[in-house]
User: What shape does this take?
Amino acid sequence: MKRFVTDCVSSDGPSITPMVEKARDITRRTFLKHVDRENLREIERSLSYDAHPKQGLTMAGDWHVGYSKSTFQGRPCVFFTHSAIEYVFC
Assistant: This one.
């Protein structure tokens, strides 16, 4: 399982740029197959997403979030984009 390693704000720009340029869109379902779910839940909580649609907006229900796959510093990765910030899992 891939775990969160960085986001574009915390990393150096030269590492993120080629990752984004080579990225291919994937579905949330595909993204979830590759990431550590508990690790992702922690990030979702930090972004103020609710755990269930009855409680409010979930990340799954936010159509502004996009999912991609690529390579980051030579390693296969998946990432999601939220508010123009990429969150990278390797």
